[in-house]
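User: Structure please.
Assistant: Input sequence and predicted structure:
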Amino acid sequence: MAEGNLILDEIVRRRSGRAFSSRPIERDKVHSILEAGRWAPSCSNTQAWQYIVIQEHEDLAKAHDALSRGNAWGKNAPLMVVVAAAEDGGCPAHNLPYFMMDVGLTVQNMLIQAVHVGLMGHPTAGWDEHKLKEILAIPESYRIVTVVFFGYEGNIEDLDERTREKEKKRSSRRPLEEIVHWEKW
């Protein structure tokens, strides 16, 4: 790929894998992922996000209790980052919940940085918010927007059959011609 496309290459290589190795992630790699997230743009520079970083085995086990069954594969990941934001902490423009978009931007930066340092990241949407907030002592005024698992790629054979089948499928994207409108719709 041409030099100007290096970041595009990492974006294209990014995937939400489910087969994680339990191998611990080096602290400098974790820090670089969090730093990439910190530098994400946000509406009016509100930076409404908060990261709860969970690496300790005991804490991970407690947090896993709040996950839906569909995210059981995440138990192998050595790093969980819960991203929360205050609903009223974001940009008030147009009466839209911009904090959600801001969290999406910070998570995307983290996912791309994970690829850059040789890791996988997988954002999820299945958890019991009340239970997870209680376990992690997240203030009531915050919403958990996503839970992201990070780790080295593991063995697909360690997954249950249903998840293994999902893992074998590679996602694709619609062609630009289907989603881009020049000047007008």
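The longest strand covers residues 142-151.
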